[in-house]
Amino acid sequence: MSDKLVIFDTTLRDGEQSPGASMTRDEKLRIARQLERLKVDVIEAGFAASSNGDFEAIKAIANTIKDSTVCSLSRANDRDITLAADALQGASRARIHTFIATSPVHMEKKLRMTPEQVLEQAKQSVRFARNRVADIEFSAEDAYRSEEDFLCRVIEAVINEGATTINVPDTVGYAIPELYGNFIKTLRERVPNSDKAIWSVHCHNDLGMAVANSLAGVKIGGARQIECTINGLGERAGNCSLEEVVMAMRTRRDYFDLDVRVDATQILAASRMVSQTTGFVVQPNKAIVGANAFAHASGIHQDGIMKARDTYEIMRAEDVGWSANKIIMGKLSGRNAFKQRLQELGVQMDSEAEVNLAFAKFKELADRKSEIFDEDILALVSEENIAQ
Ligand code: KIV
Ligand code: ZN
Question: Is 98 within 8 Å of 75 (Cβ atoms)?
Fold first, then answer.
């Protein structure tokens, strides 16, 4: 099995399906350029048949991006596939991602099709798409709630028609990590031609487990592609978050042992760009990209960090694009952290007694003000004439 994990970013397609997150052609192109700098393997640029604007955005991205595969979603019908292929014509590397639902509830209530009709349409659409591009991804929408025997038949058939990636979405975020991992493993074991395709996970976050489920799909199930979005943007509670899943892979390489091409130092820039473009604010305590992700506020932690960063840091802020970690000066800060900040600010104290006096003033202020900024410290020490 390959040691390489494909990172498939769908910020511009599934992320955009988040209510209120729609983007213009130029905004999408700007984000696509940042995704290329981030070195994601595949950029799902949109859904060509969904609107003229999306068609044009995919076309512009396909004509611009050189270092990542550019992909368009399409339903499993000839018109959608033709539009996807047309939009992707200028791409250095193009992928068509075609899907049809396979769960009983979706087939009966949404598609109003029998399982046999769904199977035929899945086969026919992959065959049709193969005439236009070589790289074909097939998704069985709502795969996780599908009947296993039927799903195996569909997957075997579309691989025979030429699908090169098989995506097993947890469309409604219903999965539990261990169960989802075992589900992928069972499918791979039961489908006779399973090794002819790369298996992919696509998890939604309705129960807050999209990242955990994706990791289990890789570790237990043997999937080698993760579909994810910047900041976890996406329908309802969102999709698997790219920054979290990539940094989990990196930080716990001892456990996952897979190669990920992403340049993690571009993560923060991508997060900020997506947040500013969509207006979706990143919560301060969001892993990796939240304002507090590398901030230390308590005295005990600050003291530990000053002695050795790995006391309270499992990864470096700089590795994901922050200029440095942050020591928050406030009422929980200790004397050592205060003294270090004075040094960083170029404040010279003549004696330990002066440091003690300044620290006492700082604590008084910190009781009144939740965060003490550098300017506050400078004002405090100069006002009181503690330092020259
Ligand atoms: O969640 C889902 O099932 C999807 C498919 C179209 C891949 O987004
Ligand atoms: Zn989705």
Answer: yes
Q: What is the DSSP string of 240-271?
A: -BHHHHHHHHHHTHHHH--EE---GGGHHHHH
More confident residue, 350 or 180: 180
- Please check whether residue 286 is in contact with residue 244, taking contact to mean a CB–CB distance below 8 angstroms: no
pLDDT bin (cut points 50, 70, 90) of residue 388 is very low
Strands 259-260 and 225-228: unpaired
User: Mind listing the pLDDT tens digit for each residue in 11-44?
Assistant: 999 999 998 999 999 999 999 999 999 999 999 9
Query: Residue 204 CA: which ligand 1 atom is closest?
Result: 1
* Residues facing residue 98 across a β-bridge: 74, 138
* Three-point CA angle 65, 73, 155, nearest 5°: 120
Find tokens 């005295």 and name the residue: 299
CA max distance for the chain: 85
Please determine, for the modelled complex, whether the ipTM score is greater than 0.90.
Answer: yes
Distance CA 5, CA 198 (A): 10
* Residue 14, marked binder: yes
Mean pLDDT comparison of 177-186, 291-300, 306-315, highest-scoring range: 177-186
Based on DSSP, count helices (H) and strands (E) in the chain, helices before strands: 15, 11
| Token pair in block for residue 349 | 């104290």
Distance from Cα 328 to the centre of ligand 1, integer Å: 41
CB-based contacts of 206: which residues, under 8 Å, 6+ apart? Answer: 172, 173, 174, 236, 237
Distance (angstroms) between ligand 2 centre and the Cα of 257 equals 26
Give the pair of three-digit tokens for residue 318: 């700089």
Separation of 204 CA from ligand 1 center, angstroms? 9
Strand 198-203, strand 225-228: pairing = parallel
Whether ligand 1 lies within 6 angstroms of the CB of 181 is answered as no
321 by DSSP, 3-state: which? coil
Q: Residues 292, 293, 294, 295: what is their CA dihedral angle, to the nearest 10 degrees?
A: 20
CB-CB contact of 40 with 61 (8 Å): no
Please report which ligand is nearest the Cα atom of 166: 1
Work out the average pLDDT over 86-104: 98
Query: What is the H or E stretch that residue 15 is in?
Result: none
